[in-house]
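Aggregate trends can hide what the representation actually does to any particular protein. For completeness, the protein is quoted in full, as a sequence line and a line of structure tokens.
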Amino acid sequence: MIARYNRLSSFLKSSGVDAMLINKPESRRYITGFTGSAGMVLCDYSCEYRKLFVDFRYMEQASQQASQWEIVKAIQNSLTEIAVQARSAGFKRIGFESDFITVDAKTALDNAFADFELVPLKLADLRKEKDENEIRIIETAVEIAEMALNKVIKEICPGAKERDIAILLETYMRKAGADGSAFDIIVASGVRSALPHGRASDKLIESGDFVTLDFGAYFKGYNSDITRTFVVGKASEKHRVIYDTVLAAQLAALQAVRAGVENHSVDKVARDYITAAGYGECFGHGLGHGLGMLVHEAPGLSYAAEPTILQINNIVTVEPGIYVPGFGGVRIEDDVVVKENGCEILTSFDKRLIEL
């Protein structure tokens, strides 16, 4: 936790605040280790003043998980109690997580902290650089997802229902140790595979369908995110052209990922390849995204994301796609760790076109 405290301390000092209120679930867990669903952190700019406010339900859990923090019993969502503590500590300028607050919650915050200067801040960037423990957890989340895929691929056949494949994937992941699915599982077959986010439906898989599976395991607070596309039955020439184009674009983008590279330039590698192949209008989403406590977090690996330079131990997805309305689509996605001279690919499932 010391490295995380130091990172938070540097951020708060540069932001010019005396202390920070933290209640976004992933921020709270990242800073304290506490996994409960409710609670608020009050931490000064040096991270020496560290208090975690929880209600009766979480006192024991917080004491076990956040042993380096002073655990304060408070009425649930009692900003007034926390303001009293902040006032007693002599704080004047308090940061709050501006990307995790509703209009009503901001009104309550303004009322409770009326005599403070409230400063809107965002902590998401603190999590961009993963430590070795985080990388190991995400590696395990990837392994769990791939174990499930190895089992469920045998069930993908004509007559199978998309929704049943999704249920099997989640079941296998949970049996392998996942705490749940990282997100609503995408199983899209036939013309539905042209829907980038085609969640599993009651459609029956047919011979000649592309079948795209996009899923991940949620494990110890972190996520994996994997996409593979298959053909049921014999692949046609059109199947092969589209698939091979996506795969070549993905491999080229993977070659471009390394520390010091601008995120937009990596997206451009895949996009230019797909455009040159005549499918530019069929690739409308970004190349990828950061991955960690959230499925989508910084840094974005997309033309539409905030421009940034990739750093060592960022974890990102690389997932170009081609989606042809009325026919189907292909997406291939890997999870990778950014390194000094390239990237470490965490996903290992075969990317050659597989006919089922």
Notes: Residues 132-152 form the longest helix (21 residues).
